[in-house]
Amino acid sequence: MAGDTGSTGAGGDRLTALLRPVRAGNGFEEALEQILLVVRLGLVPTGERLPAERELAARLGISRVTLREVLKVLHEQGLVEARRGRYGGTFVRPRADTGTHAGDELRRRVAAVDLEDVLRFREVLETGAAGLCAAHGLTDDQERRLRAALEHTRDVPPAEYRRRDTLLHLTLAELSGSPTLAAQYAAVRATVNDLLDCIPLLVRNLEHSQRQHAALVAAVLAGDADGARERAREHCAGTAALLRGFLA
Q1: 145: closest CA among 246, 95, 217, 224?
Q2: Do 70 and 28 form a contact (C-beta atoms < 8 A)?
Q3: Which domain holds residue 16?
Q4: Sequence-separated contacts (24+) of 72-77 with Cβ below 8 Å
Q5: pLDDT at 61 over 80
Q6: Whole-model pTM?
Q7: Shortest CA distance to 55 belongs to which of 89, 78, 32, 25?
Q8: pLDDT, tens digit, for every residue of 167-217?
Q9: Cα–Cα distances in Å, from 79 out to 58, 70, 94, 133, 141?
Q10: Of the candidates 115, 119, 116, 117, the residue with the CA atom closest to the CA atom of residue 107
């Protein structure tokens, strides 16, 4: 039966290698990355059903509420559809035609960069900047700048969020005391933003990012270098999970 594809037999074996409990901190983003990979690799064929919500949530180690938000994103992107009734569930839709100009442009932009290199370099710079700011401390004026940059990311329209988010991270890089680090971060962030422009803007991810921003700034202001580095690493990992899921 089509509904058994994800949980028994060869289909189940294939999914076992990919669907695993996500790490704490980025449950939504990492769960989305894993299910996107399953769909894009064709491990659940077109027209067949993903494992039941209860099973998917258990495999990924997330709540069913979070899983439903992940499935909502997939539905909005035209990758799956929900069917009701006795044999209902979430079914994989046929792949959309990617031969359009927009699809060609996306492929060119992604092919022009080494995604893993960009993501790793960004993580090194962000964790380094956060650790330096926390370890060396900030002046009163620098603290005001950082608090203001964080405040400017609150309650903004989604279309404006990425610019404000970029300014917050650039502020941290500048306050690290290393002009070279700040310049390198600006360059890699421009590439990251180009990649982010290729994927949908997800409200759930923006809300999660805001909580991570607040925790990161709090650690920096508290002089907690280890905590600041960990908060920055976790934040970068969430973005990386989305980019890998949609683009890798």
Answers
A1: 217
A2: yes
A3: 2-92
A4: 73/32, 73/200, 73/202, 73/204, 74/32, 74/35, 74/36, 74/39, 76/200, 77/200
A5: yes
A6: 0.78
A7: 89
A8: 999 999 999 999 999 999 989 998 898 899 888 889 889 999 999 999 999
A9: 22, 12, 7, 42, 48
A10: 115
Tokens of 199: 């994927």
- By residue count, the chain amounts to 248
Describe the crossing of helices 115-136 and 158-175 by its angle, rounded to 10 degrees: 60
Please identify, among 92, 110, 130, the residue that sits at the C-terminal boundary of a domain. Answer: 92
Domain-embedded: residue 147 = yes
Q: H helices within the chain, ranges in order? A: 9-16, 27-40, 53-60, 64-76, 101-111, 115-136, 140-151, 158-175, 179-196, 203-221, 225-247
Residues 106 and 85 in one domain: no
Confirm whether 97 is domain-assigned: no
User: How many domains does one find in the chain?
Assistant: 2
Question: What is the spatial distance between Cα 61 and Cα 39, in angstroms, rounded to a whole number?
Answer: 19
Residue 62, token pair as written in the block: 């997330």
Q: Which three-class secondary structure state does DSSP give residue 90?
A: strand
Residue 38 contacts residue 11 (beta carbons within 8 Å): no
